[in-house]
Write a structure and sequence with these properties.
With 410 residues, the chain is an alpha/beta fold. It has three domains: 112 residues, N-utilizing Substance Protein B Homolog, Chain A (Orthogonal Bundle); 56 residues, Alpha-Beta Plaits (2-Layer Sandwich); 191 residues, Rossmann fold (3-Layer(aba) Sandwich). Helix content is 46%, strand content 17%. The strands form two sheets. The chain has a seven-stranded mixed beta sheet with strand order 7-6-5-8-9-11-10, sandwiched between helices. Strands 2-3-1-4 form a four-stranded antiparallel beta sheet. α1 packs antiparallel against α2, α9 crosses α10 and α13 crosses α14. The chain is globular and about 70 Å long.
Length: 410
C-alpha cells in the first residue's frame, strides 16, 4: 500500500471502464481475465497507458477487495456507488488526489487513512484474504512465514518469457526484442527465461508470431526440467490443457520421440495444436480423454507421465487474484479428491522403470506432499517410490508458488 500525495491525471471514461469490469466480476461472477480482455478491446482509441490503467486498477481492486471494502464500509453485493467507493479508496491509499467527480467526492480520505493504520494487526484484513484461507495458511507455514508468502502473493506478477529453443536461443531473442523496444533480463537459475523489466503486451511482436517464445512463469518452466525428459522418449502430458508445459517438454526433447498431450476438454487441445504449429513442435499428438479407454490403451507405455493436476491455484494468486475469493473448505476437499483420482488412474501409463511427475501450482501441503504420501500408500502406489520433490516458495523465489514430485515405477 502506497501512501503520500501525488498528482495523477485521472480520466473519467477509464474509471467508468474499471467500475464496469468490477460489476461483471464481483456481481455477475464472470472470469476476471476475460472481462478485462473484452473491455480493453472495446475502444480502439485507448492507448497502451489507458489499457494499463484499466487492467491494473481492476486487478488491484480484486486483489485487495476485502481490505478496500472494509475501509470503504461497503459489503457485497456491491452497488454502483459502492464500486466507485472501492476505486476511490484505492486512489486514497496510493496518495492520489481525488478528482471533483460526484461519484468519489464523498469518500472521507483522512478517515480511510486512519482506519488503514488501525488495521495493521489484523492479518486477514490487511492482506485481503478470507479468514478460512488465513487459518489454513498459518497451519501450513506458521505465522511469520505465512505473512511472507502473502506479501509475495499480493505483488503484481512479472511477465516472464520462455525462449523456444526449437527456433532460437535466449541471446538472439533478447537482441531481437530489444530492437522491438522491450527491456529484458535473464536469470541464472532459469536458463530459458527472459523477464520483462516493464509490463508490456508481447503478443503483437514479430518474434511471438514466429513462435520464438511463449509467456510462461519461471516456476512453471522448472517443471519441464524436473521431468528429466530426453530426445526419443515416450512422454505423456496427462493434464495438458492449452499446452504450456507440453511445448516446453517438446523443446527439451528436441522434437524427437513422442509426446502425447491428454485433456478432457477438446477446445484446450485445439488451442494446443495451434500453439504447437507456431512453435514448430512436431512431436506432439493430442487425445481427448472421453473415457477410460484412452488411458487403458496407453498403459505401461510412457517413460515419463506428467500430471499437472487441477488445484486451488494458491501459488498463482499474483496473476489470478480472483481465485482466492472462490476457494473454501469444500472446494479444497473436491480438488483433493480429483487429484487422488487422477494420480490413481493415470499412474498406470508409466512403464516399469519410468517416472511419474506430479505437479501443482498450489502452496498447500494438503494438495502436494500429503497427496503424494497418500498415493504411495495406496494399492496403485505400491510399485512407486518417491525419488525427489521440490517446493517453490513465492516469497523466496519471487515467482509463482509450485510443487513437483518425481516418482519412479519399479
Amino acid at each position: 500500500m502506497k501512501k503520500g500525495h501525488k498528482q495523477v491525471r485521472l480520466h473519467k471514461n477509464l474509471a467508468v471502464a474499471v467500475v464496469n469490469c468490477l460489476e461483471a466480476i464481483f456481481n455477475q461472477g464472470k472470469q476476471a481475465d476475460k472481462v478485462i480482455a473484452k473491455m480493453l478491446k472495446s475502444d480502439k482509441r485507448w492507448g497502451k497507458r489507458d489499457r494499463g490503467f484499466i487492467a491494473e486498477n481492476t486487478y488491484e481492486i480484486i486483489r485487495w477487495k476485502r481490505l478496500y471494502a472494509e475501509l470503504a464500509d461497503v459489503k457485497e453485493t456491491f452497488s454502483n456507488s459502492n464500486l466507485w467507493r472501492l476505486l476511490s479508496v484505492r486512489w486514497v491509499l496510493q496518495g492520489i488526489s481525488l478528482p471533483p467527480w460526484d461519484e468519489v467526492q464523498k469518500t472521507p480520505a483522512r478517515r480511510v487513512k486512519g482506519k488503514f493504520d488501525g488495521l495493521q494487526k489484523h492479518r486477514a484484513l490487511v492482506c485481503s484474504i478470507t479468514d478460512w484461507l488465513d487459518n489454513i495458511g498459518v497451519a501450513n507455514f506458521g505465522e511469520s512465514k505465512w505473512r511472507d508468502e502473502l506479501d509475495a502473493l499480493n505483488t503484481q506478477a512479472s511477465v516472464v518469457l520462455r525462449v523456444n529453443r526449437l527456433k532460437t536461443n535466449p541471446k538472439i531473442l533478447q537482441k531481437e526484442l530489444t530492437l522491438e523496444g522491450f527491456k529484458l533480463v535473464s536469470h541464472p537459475s532459469y536458463p530459458d527465461a527472459l523477464i520483462l523489466e516493464e509490463r508490456a503486451n508481447v503478443f503483437d511482436t514479430e518474434s511471438f508470431q514466429k513462435g520464438f517464445f511463449e509467456v510462461q512463469d519461471a516456476s512453471s518452466q522448472l517443471v519441464g526440467y524436473f521431468a528429466e525428459v530426453s530426445p526419443g522418449m515416450q512422454v505423456i502430458d496427462a493434464c495438458a490443457g492449452a499446452g504450456g508445459k507440453s511445448l516446453h517438454l517438446a523443446a527439451l526433447m528436441e522434437n524427437k520421440g513422442q509426446l502425447t498431450a491428454l485433456d478432457i476438454y477438446s477446445h484446450k487441445l485445439h488451442e494446443l495444436k495451434r500453439r504447437a504449429r507456431r512453435a514448430g513442435a512436431h512431436n506432439i499428438t493430442t487425445r481427448q480423454i472421453s473415457s477410460n479407454k484412452v488411458i487403458k490403451k496407453l498403459q505401461n507405455r510412457a517413460d515419463r507421465v506428467l500430471i499437472d493436476a487441477p488445484c486451488t491455484g494458491l501459488g498463482v494468486l499474483r496473476r489470478n487474484p480472483d481465485a482466492k475469493w472462490k476457494i473454501d473448505a469444500d472446494f479444497l476437499e473436491r480438488v483433493k479428491q480429483t487429484q487422488q483420482q487422477i494420480l490413481s488412474a493415470y499412474a498406470s501409463m508409466v512403464k516399469p522403470g519410468g517416472k511419474l511427475i506430479y505437479a501443482t501450482c498450489s502452496i498447500l501441503k494438503e494438495e502436494n506432499q500429503e497427496q503424494v504420501e497418500q498415493f504411495l500408500k495406496s494399492p496403485k502406489g505400491t510399485e512407486f517410490t518417491l525419488e525427489k520433490d521440490n517446493f517453490i516458495s513465492p516469497a523466496k523465489s519471487g515467482f509463482d508458488g509450485f510443487y513437483m514430485a518425481r516418482i519412479i515405477r519399479s
